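Data card: per-record layout.
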Amino acid sequence: MLGGVETRSVSPVFVGRADELAVLTDALTRAAGQEPQALLIGGEAGVGKTRLTEEFLCEADRRGAVVAVGGCVEIGAEGLPFAPFSTALRTLHRLLPAELAAAAVGQEDELARILPELGETPRGPHDEESTARLFELTARMLERLAADRTVVLVLEDLHWADASTRHLLSYLLRALGSGRLVVVATYRADDVHRRHPLRPLLAELDRLRTVQRIELPRFNRAEVRRQLAGILASQPDEDFVESVFDRSDGNAFFVEELVASRASGCVTGLTESLRDLLLVRVEVLPDAAQRVVRIVAEGGSTVEYELLRAVTRLTEDELIEALRSAVGANILIATSDGDGYRFRHSLVREAVSDDLLPGERARVNRRYAEALEEDDSLIRTEERTIRLATYWYHANDAVKALPAVLAASVAARRRHAYSEQLRLLERAMELWEAVPEEVRGALRPADYTEVYPPCGCDPATTPLQRLDLLAEATVAARFGGERERALKLTKTALRTLDDGHDPLRAAWFWTERSRLITALARGDGWAELARAQELVRGLPPSQVHADVLVRAASWGMLHQPGPDNLVAAERAVEYARMVGAEDTELNARITVGSLLVDCGESERGLAEMYAVKDRAAELGLGMLAGRAHINLTSHLESMGRSREAVELAEQGVALAKKFHLMDSEAWVRGNMAESLYSLGRWDESATEARRGLALVSSAAPRAAAAARLSYLALARGELAEAATQLAAARAHFGSHNGQPQHRIPLFRLAIGVAAGEGRIADVRTEVTTAVDYGFPLGNHRYAWPLLLAAASAEADARGLPVAEAGREEALTVLRTAARALATPVPVWSAHSEYLRAELLRAEARDTVADWTAVEGAVRPLERPYLLARARHRLVEALLAGGGDREAATGLLHQAHATAERLGARRLREDLALLAQRARLPLTPLDTPKALPAPDTDPVEALGLTSRERDVLRLVAVGHTNRQIAEELFISPKTASVHVSNILAKLGVAGRGEAAALAHRLRLFGSGSPKAVRTG
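The structure for this 1015-residue chain is written out next.
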């Protein structure tokens, strides 16, 4: 089903390109198997990209595919947001109205930003996730539309694409996971110079294995001969072939133009200039037709018939006659919808446009603008604002252009096309000084801006200032991902405000600067926030003042927790209420609730956050409701209420999906993964962490998800994976992320990896660094697991020669740090008890009573992994002390069942060896005959030979291969082979891990303080 496909070539024969066409048709075949396809077709102007695409679309139509074509529009530097996607989706809407409506159901208002036919475009919300939400919805709509039919989406002239189109294409090609969709994009390779904005996108797409790139070369002499034969319907003589090939250099379009020029009797007018070649056939048209062609050249890629009629001021008969001449000469063609005209090839349009005199160009653009102002029905509503701005700008009329450009910036913002909004605002600032002050004085902030709060002035009566445009441009740049540009804009604004005449506005820009510096990992943003606080100090309450206080309190909560932050947050709530800024008030109340929990008033803090959550949802403030869910689930987990946290997280995910808050959803899923881990639902935890990773590109939530996967891998004994995910988390967080809630868990993971690999010295280094960093108020939830992991490592390393030096100091550091930590709820009291027992085990002073107390403290907590570990130690203590073997057997069975269910390999192995050495059944199903003989060697039970036992003993005390060889009178190469075999049999990655395993399992008795009694 062809929709919106124009045939713009004149050659009746398709020449060459067989391999390229085969690649395209093969993509159709693969797409039919629910495998989305993406192809880029590049080549110089006129080389035949359009003709190849036409042939492919004919084949797609023959196979029953639905085809939609959209072209990028060259109407100036600001571009027309989403132009090719809007055009293509409009075609799909016409061809498949019911199917597209079903694919867009429930999201019509958001998708109307790209396809206005779906409904009214809402004014907001606007935030850094707005564009990603729109892109995600577009991708899912196309997936649903292509679920049971092949859809071919062609985007032409990508070299003219606006930034929003480029970003959407990039997202689409990464996000499409299923559906019978083929996306083809064409671009002029010769236009993509080193600084062209398309160049980075092409490099990015080249790295995607799912994207195929086709480069079209020029025709060779034989192909030019075949093309000429097709056009002339006879074999050309060789002299003519040689002449055309030399002049065209194998460019297919120039071949056509040379033949057409010859046929129209213009051979004598040919010169070596390609521009002259393109103009020569225009110049033989009747005067009226030439005039129409020149007007069309300045109107954009396509000009509507009624608009053209208004601009040319010809009678209808005169216009039709002129158009007939231009169409007959193959200069212009009618558009597929029959509503307007365009040049057969953009090269001709560019040549005609370049040939206009400066005054002539301005006059034509003025006529276009005047025609649109007189009758706004001449073009589509969504295009009117941007095209009017462009026409007035190129008409060199600053007075008319400034309000038109500002209105276009508002339209771009409503479509979440923030990059285009930024370019338009920059154009407005360029025009600002050229417009008389009395004209600027009539402009109002209420009509064109929305990011800077009124702060006591009436935006409907106060004149618009250049600083308003700088504020709007700063936020547009931030929302559009151009943070460096946003930072430069804040610098420009603050330079203007340096005289102190507007401290509130300066404070606003310093707050924005803090946000940007943090996002760019240039610092923690505190210096900028401190400057903002200085500027608002002593001023009457205002929304800016409240915003500054909220940001400062939130910063303090995350970076320097303490009671002072609560005071600032409560003052922010008060100020926001006084000025009626409820969204700012609710944001501040979330911070107040979090700080109350940290200060020990848990129930009051939770109640405050629950109230905000409900109110934000009632007002439709998705971002605030999302933040409330993030903080609530985190605090519930910190209080040991993991089951409640999971239930709330599920609601948070539903809310985030409703409002398309991908960052918020990723954070909520990360929190859910943490709580599921605590509850022993590890497979679900891994699923949620991976979903969070896949959702976003933002660094912090990706880092948190990677850290969660590292925790899981560590618990399952997958040390290499744990180290990989830890490295990923560190990379995502960056070196400037100083938040304790992020830094402390990374210390704990590094301790776990180092301990697993037998690097006790590195364990101690990480502990020292973490303790020096400190455990601020409210961060006991991260500190207790860290200290416990370090104490366990010290206890497991007892007897390891390299661990003896510095052991006493290391244990003292742990005890001192623990004394300063709070235990506000049972889960942390249990950790405190567990830590005390592990420190005693590290000194061989632990008793059955110690581990009984630990097991009793952990049992009520719904922490199955922690409980299984505690029971392992209790069983070990019971057996070593000659205690109740029946009780030990029951505890062993319970711990092993948990380890099996969770996939906790290391714990499972420890329990298995303990059972073997004590001659206890590992599971209730084990029979006495299945138990090992009393003299069974645990080393042999691991499958090691006697020689490998000797080698492992030496590895365990830190010997190198050469030292092992000297000790055992073998060659270093043989020693190396034995070590490799040992690592494989033990399932460990390195020598350190093997040594740690040997000492942890007490394979060689010298390190064991007590023998396990077999009864």
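Known properties of this structure: DSSP finds 51 helices and nine strands in the chain. Residues 278 and 348 are 6 Å apart (CA to CA).

See the next section for split statistics.
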